[in-house]
Amino acid sequence: MDLLEYQGKQLFAAHGIAVPSGEVASTVEEAVAAADRIGYPCAIKAQVLIGGRGKAGGIKIAADAEQAREYADAILGMDIVGPHGEGPFRVDQVWIEGGSDIAAEYYASVILDRGEKKLLAMVSAKGGMDIEAVAEEDPDALVRRHIDPTRKFDAAAARTIVDDAGLDEDVRDQAAEVLVKLAEVASSEDASLIEVNPLIVTADRQVVALDAKVTIDGNALFRHQELAEIADTVDDPQEAMAKEKGLTYVKLDGNVGILANGAGLCMSTLDVVAQAGGAPANFLDAGGGSKAEAIVNALEVITSDQKVTAILFNIFGGITRCDEIAKGIVEASGQLDLKVPLVVRLDGTNSEEGLRILAEANLPNLNQEKTMLDAARRVVELAGASS
Amino acid sequence: MSIIVGKETKLVVSGLTGREGTFHGLRNRDYGTDLVAGVTPGKGGQDVEGVPVFDTIKESVEQAGANTSMIFVPARFAAPAIDEAIESGVETVIAITEGIPVLDMLKTYWKAKEAGVRLIGPNCPGVLSPGKANVGIIPAQFFDQGKIGVVSKSGTLTYQIGNELKQAGEGNSSIVGIGGDPIVGSDFIDILTMYEADPETELIVMVGEIGGDAEERAAEFIASEISKPVVAYIAGFTAPPGKQMGHAGAIISGSSGTAQAKKDALEAKGVRVGESPTETAKIAVETLRS
């Protein structure tokens, strides 16, 4: 789960990391009122879960109330696409904070290195720009050091990283302290990524986190009540509905609804549909041991997306029993007014029984295919072109 | 031969008295796995259909001779249960549980390393050595005994590929689910190493997916250390960046962890990568018979 910038900054502040003070606003009026309280110049920053906001026009400095109104009006409701094509993300909130007098811009992060199975601390004196580009063009400018999981990460350990990164000497102790606290945020809040870009030095030589990118491990939310509440508020309508029903659903752009059992098989199903020339509308993993009720719920979520023009069921029953899936499909057809064709491929545990149940029900609009590839081709043909 | 589980496996199941634990534990026994004990704190002295239950894993090692532990404990209690298994004296720990906090696993990973215990999972379907032993939730009926070793991040996708191999008349030495979490006890490289040393295994099928760089690391390793042919499949070409696709580890972060990058890395080292599960099975069969 990713946090918005202001949520990350609140987390930083709670752990004693200096951040500019500010307010969040979701209307132009609120934004102007907040800017008036904070004073000018102030920064008006789009709150979306993606980098590259500045380039997209989502961060502006307002010199007076008139500009604050103009920028808040432009930014609220804007759609921002990420540098790697993520999104688009609609801007529902802006964060307004006092303008900072910037003497230097650094970069600091603590992330989980999956390959090495350690936390990785990174510091650079070249902050304020795309750090992937810095790492590529000038690898030595980004100091990367793993945190020994068996020892406490203290100011002395952090200081060697800061020294090697060549930050200004007078602020190295402060920067090292920030790095220690970032590592503390990682372990005490179950964050698998914390990135501060830029970490600034102000004109009066204070080290302040001017941005915050934080990813919290969704599996650890049970022990972070406040973060769990944030997690409940960030989904789109279909994703929220799926979550409520306990389904793993990710919305995509296309028109072919997909239901499969197991994350890997579901991803593979999306790929095969795309290879057949189709555009998947969603990822939906019905999970292991799916019962009829889960299928009804899943179909309800998939069909609530108006773009869907055909649905593919790709089930390989292991623990999941195909007869249960078939019952679910029959039940769902009775409960929901399914207007789009279904293509069903059932294989694995109790598939013969499942196929028999479907044949007996003789549902209109239901097509059976024996293999994953044939099923993908059929559903693409039935779905027609994606609008 | 086979790897990780076999005729010598003496299994203890943590969480045997729970609904899922009972179902799968007994299913493993029915397959022929030597299930020697269950563990549930406070329920020592009871039994589950004749299988003795102990309070601790250590007791099951000392009194029932357990050498392999399977963890079927709910997520928030699972990391301590794995830690207990690591310290109990078993050689292998297979963690099925999904949803363990990743920083808990980070600590547990290093405990296993230090103790020299082989950890498989978490968030995995377990290990099956056809005709010998099954530890976990892999449905054994879709796999025959044979010469192909399978290692995979995904459960159902593996069943799909295994079934296609079976229909083509080929079987498996072992099927290892390494799990779909960001931190897993054994990576592709660990399992590839074991298959390389296993005389029964003649070809290896590796099933990866988006997220992390385990496939890229495996590609490097295959080029320098693995003499047996490897055929791969990668899922998630259509996954959008920044979205978690079911598995906690299946997420493209920025530009890293994409399916295309993994495919390119493997192909650059001469590993053939199938377009679909069906094609992957076909390539594996052709390669084995050529």
Q: In total, how many domains does the architecture of chain A comprise?
A: 3
CATH class of the largest domain in chain B: Alpha Beta
Average of per-residue pLDDT values of chain B: 95
Question: Main beta sheet of chain A: strand number and arrangement?
Answer: 7 strands, antiparallel
β content of chain A, as a range? 25-35%
**Which value, in Å, is the CA radius of gyration of chain A?**
25 Å
The second-level CATH architecture of the largest domain in chain B is 3-Layer(aba) Sandwich
Distance between the termini of chain B: 23 Å
Q: From the 3D coordinates, which CATH architecture of the largest domain in chain A would you assign?
A: 2-Layer Sandwich
Overall average residue pLDDT of chain A = 92
Strand order of the largest sheet of chain B: 3-4-2-1-5-6-7
Structural class determined from secondary elements of chain A: alpha+beta
Run of helices and strands of chain B:
EHEEEHEHEHEEEEHEHEHEHEH
Distance between the termini of chain A: 30 Å
Shape of chain A: elongated
Total DSSP helices of chain B? 9
Strand content of chain B: 15-25%
**DSSP helix fraction of chain A:** 25-40%
Largest sheet of chain B: 7 strands, mixed
Uncertain runs of chain B are: none
What does the model show?
The complex is a heterodimer of chains A (387) and B (290). With 387 residues, chain A is of the alpha+beta class. Chain A has three domains: 1-19 and 101-234, ATP-grasp fold, B domain (D-amino Acid Aminotransferase, Chain A, domain 1); 21-99, ATP-grasp fold, A domain (Dna Ligase, domain 1, 2-Layer Sandwich), CATH 3.30.1490.20; 237-383, Rossmann fold. Chain A is built from 13 helices and 19 strands. Chain A has helices at 5-14, 28-38, 65-75, 131-137, 155-165, 172-189, 225-231, 237-244, 263-275, 292-303, 322-335, 351-361, 372-383, and strands at 2-3, 22-25, 42-46, 59-62, 79-80, 89-90, 94-98, 102-113, 118-124, 142-147, 191-202, 207-209, 213-216, 248-251, 256-260, 282-285, 310-317, 342-348, 366-368. In chain A, the strands form five sheets. In chain A, strands 1, 8, 9, 10, 11, 12 and 13 form a seven-stranded antiparallel beta sheet that branches. In chain A, strands 2-7-3-4 form a four-stranded antiparallel beta sheet, covered by helices on one side. Chain A has a four-stranded parallel beta sheet with strand order 15-17-18-19, sandwiched between helices. In chain A, helix 11 links the parallel strand 17 and strand 18. In chain A, helix 10 (292-303) crosses helix 11 (322-335) and helix 11 (322-335) packs parallel to helix 12. The longest helix of chain A has 18 residues, at 172-189. The mean pLDDT of chain A is 92. Chain B is an alpha/beta fold and 290 residues long. Chain B has two domains: 10-120, 3-Layer(aba) Sandwich (Rossmann fold), CATH 3.40.50.720; 139-289, 3-Layer(aba) Sandwich (Rossmann fold). Helices cover 37% and strands 23% of the residues of chain B. Chain B is built from nine helices and 14 strands. Chain B has helices at residues 19-31, 57-64, 75-88, 102-115, 156-167, 188-197, 214-225, 259-268, 277-289, and strands spanning 10-14, 34-39, 47-48, 51-54, 68-71, 92-95, 118-120, 126-129, 133-136, 145-152, 172-177, 203-209, 230-235, 272-274. Chain B has a seven-stranded mixed beta sheet, sandwiched between helices. In chain B, strands 9-8-11-10-12-13-14 form a seven-stranded mixed beta sheet, with helices on both faces. In chain B, strand 5 (68-71), helix 3 and strand 6 form a beta-alpha-beta unit. In chain B, helix 3 (75-88) runs parallel beside helix 4 (102-115), helix 5 packs across helix 9 (277-289) and helix 6 (188-197) runs parallel beside helix 7 (214-225). Chain B is globular, with a radius of gyration of 18 Å. The mean pLDDT of chain B is 95. Classes of the chains: A alpha+beta (387), B alpha/beta (290). The interface between A and B is large, with 62 and 65 residues.
